[in-house]
Design brief:
- It is a single chain.
- The protein is an alpha+beta fold and about 675 residues long.
- The chain has 24 helices and 9 strands.
- The chain has a 5-stranded mixed β-sheet with strand order 5-6-7-9-8, covered by helices on one side. Strands 1-2 form a two-stranded antiparallel sheet.
């Protein structure tokens, strides 16, 4: 869960609370937790440019200074500071003043303020959850930083991009820019930026569930925060480190670190961070079933929250109070707190809904109200499904934007080539006046050259058209698979689970003969098998592993599932794939190719063993699938009417790869595919 509110220093503080999803057994001693997101470190450039004071006196003072400013650059800077005052509370006013600054810069032809204007719009669209616009302005700043050659500015821009990608769930891009930022900051010895840079890295690794690295960078943030008297970095580093330990079920360690964070927040008189530390402590003490500690810190939290300006956090406080009442067995009061929290979360903080739904589910389980408990568990699962689809859409948007950019660059290069050719033609025509022979030769040469350029343009357009059509088919196929998987899981899955629940209720109210009871149990077993089969089909249509963890992990899990099914012994090997990112479109396409080849080995080759290998060396990705089946004559594939090999070849052509097939009757088969990435 993410908290976002300004603190008392000129800095936007974004804190992620650890909200446990507890499942409490009848004896209330067995508790299982799934931890939520922690910290999102915002743009470090904001710390030196935007003031967070929100009083009208401050605004009026800045506007007076802007009106009397002697130069336009100063006036633009002051308008942006006024926009910063409203950046977290009044988005319309914030947009008004940043737009005034942008128009003034355009009218006066001032380009020196572009990076600050872009940062303001990036922040505005960030808080309004407009992913595409926020990324567009962040990339504009990246172009400015690269052009200027200022490595410190480039490091700040990398940090901002990592923060934006973190916020919108694009973990692959976030870690890429985060590591670039750290490397460049160390190269330039910009040590004062180390606390924030390491906080961004710790959050990114936490989102990837690489807790050891998250803890490492949290410790570095704390170390540099102490060195440069940055108490904010120290508190946030403690928060990230505690969250990582909590996710690993090292609750005692997490609690001791949260206590350090609380002490520092109280010393700094930071009300927002104090409340967040108290919420985290209540959640973790609840996980170890310590009612006295929960009561103590909940009382402190409710006293502190009276003056808390962050209304979005009130939903989380309601959730803490509900857990507090659950420990007291005061279920009516707990329900009232949850209802109030849900009403707030739907308006102020939709991220808190999942935690409130989980707590509601636990409340009903404790009261043995299974139907209501499963209803709220289903609501929580639905929220997670929406989040996963949203993350996938971000990846698709990035791919589409990249494709359009490359297409435009290709057109520009072609136009530049044509312009250059026309200039050469004019030059040689003027020089050819001295000799008719020279004019004829140059004209013929120019004509032939233009023919080649035109043919090259036609070939390029035909290739682009073919690739576009292939890409559209593949994207359409994956989109439909994703939709069908969601419909199966959320629609048919929910219905089958409901039927099972109803049948179990009927069983308790019916008197049956032993034969009928046995038949009834067989029906329940068949229904369980149907649910498992439906989930397996949904998983095969769009594996969650592929979207979240990449190609290497997804193929490993796929082979493990095939091997566990008993249909065939499947083995998987990978070389050079550790921490090597693969483009999402390539990953999906390669996964489908391997899936088709393994299925062919199971269905048609009568193989007992199949081996899948994935190897990456520099820019070459190689995939090999071998089996010990009956094999076949390679010439028969040319006349084959099946769709399997046709689909495989189309996908290989889309990846611009090379396919090598080795097979023969009784010799098994081996398929190797190589492509540039």
């Amino acid at each position: 869960m993410i908290f976002e509110k300004p603190g008392k220093k000129s800095l936007k503080k974004t804190i992620g609370n650890i909200l446990p999803a507890a499942v409490i057994c009848d004896n209330r001693k067995e508790i299982i937790y799934s931890m939520r997101k922690v910290i999102l470190i915002l743009f470090s450039v904001f710390t030196s440019f935007f003031c967070q004071a929100q009083v009208e006196k401050k605004r009026d003072s800045l506007l007076t200074l802007a009106a009397g400013a002697k130069d336009d650059s100063t006036r633009i800077a002051l308008l942006l500071k006024v926009s910063g005052i409203y950046s977290t509370g009044n988005f319309d006013s914030s947009f008004l003043y940043m737009n005034k600054a942008k128009k003034l810069a355009e009218e006066k032809g001032i380009t020196g303020c572009d990076q600050y204007i872009n940062t303001a719009f990036m922040q505005y669209y960030y808080y309004n959850n407009d992913y595409k616009s926020s990324i567009d302005y962040a990339l504009k700043n990246l172009a400015i930083a690269e052009k200027s050659g200022d490595e410190k500015l480039l490091a700040k821009t990398y940090n901002n991009l990592a923060a934006v990608y973190n916020h919108f769930g694009n973990n692959k891009s976030a870690i890429d820019y985060s590591l670039k930022c750290l490397a460049l900051s160390e190269k330039t010895k910009d040590s004062t930026s180390f606390p924030v840079r390491n906080l961004t890295a710790s959050n990114t690794y936490y989102n990837l569930k690489q807790y050891d690295k998250a803890i490492y960078y949290s410790k570095r943030a704390i170390e540099f925060g102490k060195q440069f008297d940055n108490s904010f970095a120290v508190m946030m580093g403690l928060n990230n480190m505690a969250a990582s330990y909590s996710d690993q079920h090292k609750t005692d360690t997490a609690i001791s670190i949260y206590l350090q964070q609380l002490a520092l927040a109280q010393k700094e008189e930071d009300l927002v961070l104090t409340c967040y530390a108290l919420i985290n402590l209540c959640q973790n003490y609840f996980s170890v079933n310590d009612p006295a500690a929960v009561e103590k810190y909940a009382v402190m939290l409710n006293k502190a929250a009276v003056d808390l300006p962050d209304k979005a956090t009130l939903a989380e406080i309601r959730n803490v109070n509900a857990l507090r009442y659950i420990l007291r067995n005061e279920y009516t009061l707990a329900k009232a707190e949850l209802d109030g929290g849900i009403a707030l979360a739907k308006v102020e903080n939709t991220d808190a809904l999942g935690n409130l739904y989980q707590t509601y589910s636990k409340l009903y389980f404790i009261q043995n109200k299974i139907k209501q408990a499963e209803d709220y568990a289903y609501k929580y699962d639905s929220l997670q499904s929406v989040a996963n689809i949203k993350e996938l859409n971000f990846y698709i948007e990035d791919l589409e934007a990249k494709y359009e950019t490359e297409k435009k660059e290709s057109q520009i290069k072609l136009q530049q080539t044509e312009l250059k050719q026309k200039s050469n033609f004019i030059y040689f025509l003027g020089a050819g006046v001295f000799s008719l022979v020279v004019i004829s030769l140059l004209t013929y040469r120019n004509y032939r050259h233009r023919q080649k350029l035109q043919q090259a343009k036609i070939d390029e357009l035909e290739t682009e058209k073919k690739l576009t059509a292939t890409e559209a088919v593949l994207k359409g196929e994956e989109k439909e698979r994703t939709r069908l998987a969601k419909d199966l899981h959320d629609g048919l899955g929910g219905m089958l689970s409901g039927i099972k629940f109803s049948l179990n209720n009927m069983k308790e109210n019916l008197i049956m003969t032993p034969d009928n009871a046995q038949a009834f149990e067989r029906s329940i077993d068949m229904l369980d098998s149907s649910i498992r089969e439906m989930r397996r089909v949904a998983h095969n249509m769009m594996p969650e592993m592929l979207v979240k963890y990449g190609l290497d992990t997804a193929l490993k899990e796929f082979c493990h599932e095939i091997d566990r099914s008993g249909a065939i012994h499947a083995s998987y090997q990978s070389v050079g794939m550790k921490d090597m990112p693969v483009d999402q479109t390539i990953s999906v396409t390669v996964y489908r190719i391997v899936q088709e080849l393994v299925n062919n080995a199971v269905k048609h080759a009568q193989a007992k063993n199949v081996l899948v290998q994935l190897h990456q060396s520099e820019s070459i990705l190689a995939v090999t699938v071998e089996d010990d089946g009956t094999g076949f004559d390679e010439n028969t594939l040319k006349n084959s009417g099946g769709m399997g090999w046709h689909n495989i070849r189309n996908r290989v052509e889309f990846l611009k790869g090379k396919l090598d097939l080795q097979s023969g009757p009784g010799k098994g088969s081996s398929v190797m595919i190589e492509m540039n990435i």
